[in-house]
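Here is one chain, start to finish.
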Amino acid sequence: MNVLMVGVDQTFPGGMFTVAENYLGDEEFCKKTNLIYVPTATRSGKLAKIRFFLKALARLVSLIHKRKIDIVHIHMAERGSVFREGFVAWLAKRMGKKTVIHMHGATIEDWYDRQAGLTQKLASYLFGQADKMIVLGYSWLPFMERAMGIGKKDRISVLHNAVPIWHENRYDPDALNLLFYGVLVPRKGIDDLLQAYQSILEEIPENIILTIYGADIENNILAKIKAYHLEGRAVYCGWMTSDEREQCFSKTMLHILPSYNEGLPMTILETMAFGIPNIATDTAAIPEAITDGENGRLVSPGAPEQLARTMKELIGDPGLRREYSRRAYRRAKEEFSLQRHMDDLYAIYQSLLE
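Its structure:
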């Protein structure tokens, strides 16, 4: 089996490249699939992006010819990614290869529904180039069935994201940091979190700090911290490297991600795999990882008052956090381990070749 995988390069912060890194870092999976990874998208100026894509396209065609590729696995998001990666899927089909589209777009449904008729039809046509369409959770099935059209339902498969699981639950209920871990854009709910945190400052211990990790795409997080008068109580730490993860997680009491749109956030799974309880929103596939009141808490998107009440409750109840931690770690180990994910993906590959 020879698999050619297509996605973004390391300049794209977020879950899609993290997923690709997990594949590339699994020696057994790479050996079984003879995996080759080619990025077709980079963060740069418009002309540089076009040149990058055209060079990648030439390389893809060459590899398909020379390496006798069986399957082209394409990571896709919303907006331009639909047409860029959709063209790759179309080309691979024209070259007689099996195609997998792996949909990561957190706002893909909203984007699709806003498009004019012809654009929407083109997007559906490109989705239909997939011999197998992978979505990140069961909540995405109704949309994808609608978008792909009649007769393609059996092409859609759910494959949850996955992460490495720590060998034991490492959670410290006496930790003092709250953690936001994600790209700093409005849809991640960072403003709601800052508002909620500011509203409970006088009701929680002074030594509890909000640590913020992630790419500051809009270059305004420090201004927002100042606007909410959170200097000294909230700290922006930049993008979290793999070397920093253990130290950061070991000091984390709660991970909080009040997103408006998501696929299935890698940051939620990574913190669960360490044993850290989560407060997140009940959107997209998040409830497939977090069951409210069982292994974490779910709140409504855009509800900072509800978020503040939930944060205050869990900050003040280490026993409850410890119980959520135990169940969160177990859920991650049983349902979101890399080994299970790799086995399921390999089975999808085999089914296509059979």
